[in-house]
């Protein structure tokens, strides 16, 4: 059995999509990040970095329990466990390359763009511009790569597509607009339309909405997510 520890956000969403696509049996374990549940000792034992998602698989390699954290690591683990959505053997170098493009570029810069536009103190124009422009640059790189392609790697749907979809799904917040946020990147629009048409997407969204997470950014949430100082008792994170 798989225990899927998740909270609201694009990284858990990717894992929800994989679980929906494969039909793997799992239990959804909500972690309310705005209430600071990611800092609880029990969760830190699973992910010392205090971020969602995390996964516990009691039927891991050689019958041993496996604990995996970080969405990219979880996608790789589940894909290799099920032998699904990993592409062809010859696609492996490109699969790893584009998976890391999302993990180290598209995802982090998108997340920081959202933070500096919505949560950071006013007046940090350099940081806001830096992260917003980098998010847009990553959009352009992926848009150019998708010219004449249906999928990011090879000729079939893989975990790379799931990973990119998780962050592109948040384009409205990254671009700070509700009006066609990806219209400058037509290949990304086409890509998202294709993925969103998959039945598993609705299932994934249902998984993510299965718990009423706290959504109010009050002082408790700010201290949980963005503490003003670091201490062993207050280890904030952006999940």
TrEMBL record:
Pfam families, per the entry: GST_C_2 (PF13410), GST_N_2 (PF13409)
InterPro entries membership: Glutathione-S-Trfase_C-like (IPR010987), Glutathione-S-Trfase_C_sf (IPR036282), Glutathione_S-Trfase (IPR040079), Glutathione_S-Trfase_N (IPR004045), Thioredoxin-like_sf (IPR036249)
Domain GST C-terminal: 88-228
Domain GST N-terminal: 1-86
Family matches, as PANTHER family: DISULFIDE-BOND OXIDOREDUCTASE YFCG, GLUTATHIONE S-TRANSFERASE-RELATED
Protein name (Swiss-Prot/TrEMBL): Glutathione S-transferase family protein
């Amino acid at each position: 059995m798989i225990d899927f520890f998740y909270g609201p956000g694009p990284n858990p969403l990717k894992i929800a999509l994989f679980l929906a696509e494969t039909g793997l049996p799992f239990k959804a374990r909500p972690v309310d990040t705005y209430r600071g549940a990611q800092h609880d000792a029990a969760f830190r034992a699973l992910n010392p970095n205090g971020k969602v998602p995390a996964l516990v698989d009691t039927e891991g390699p050689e019958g041993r329990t496996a604990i995996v954290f970080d969405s990219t690591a979880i996608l790789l683990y589940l894909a290799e466990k099920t032998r699904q959505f990993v592409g062809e053997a010859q696609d492996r170098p490109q699969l790893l390359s584009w998976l890391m493009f999302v993990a180290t570029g598209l995802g982090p810069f998108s997340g920081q763009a959202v933070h500096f536009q919505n949560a950071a103190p006013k007046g940090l124009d350099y940081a806001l511009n830096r992260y917003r422009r980098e998010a847009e640059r990553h959009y352009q790189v992926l848009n150019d790569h998708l010219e004449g392609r249906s999928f990011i790697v090879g000729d079939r749907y893989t975990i790379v597509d799931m990973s990119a979809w998780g962050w592109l799904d948040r384009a409205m917040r990254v671009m700070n607009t509700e009006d066609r946020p990806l219209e400058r990147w037509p290949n990304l629009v086409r890509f998202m339309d294709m993925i969103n048409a998959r039945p598993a997407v609705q299932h994934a969204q249902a998984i993510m909405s299965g718990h009423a997470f706290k959504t109010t950014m009050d002082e408790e949430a700010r201290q949980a997510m963005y503490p003003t100082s670091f201490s062993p008792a207050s280890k904030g994170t952006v999940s």
